[in-house]
């Protein structure tokens, strides 16, 4: 069983990722993070990616972080039988990171507000606010994340070649976004291409693995280095280090986007880069696979 998110749902979100997370729910692309808004002004409203009946809402304690809320929230929605997701009757959507404005018994349509996005302690400091979505089979415990079904994308993302260089267009405290690769056709989902022509997804190398959309199997390369081996679309990263202008950084945040602000995102807490700086990103093998940041 797999659930396909159609273009009519995905086009409501400027950015998305199936793999850019350290949490088990994202293993093998069994969850997706949907970003309702991008840029310095963080989104507050959480539009629903599914239609159905709200079964339950629960609050859960999040890891303590100085920049984050102490609680996160779970929203369970049983999908409508006529859902466009082509899922069996009784399939349940699990959504996180939303302070719910809905309650059990309410009905929601795609695009309805579920509530207010929450920046909880499950987030790394460089991660933007988003709706986390996964699906549970009709006979599965809907409160559990592990064992969720794979998610397929009803869009064909465009793979953008990138040589590792670019100029800083945005500089946050923990990351910079480059102006390359540039989006050639805003409105269509794109991502950084592997040298095989697959769209890369995930935290390279600060999370254990990621994805290569379009892949079936085989080595995955970027910037002249083999970064991992694809098993289906899922990739476990090799032991590599990411450098920006010769300085080791945490990694690359790889995702799919359809907005014209797309560019390579370098995760680099404590950096000294500024808007307008030209940066050269390289990958090097390392005997120390310790995650930075």
From TrEMBL:
Xref: InterPro entries: DUF8155_C, DUF8155_N
Domain DUF8155 as annotated: residue spans: 4-152, 159-283
Entry protein name: Peptidase M23
Naturally occurring in which organism (per UniProt): Halomarina rubra
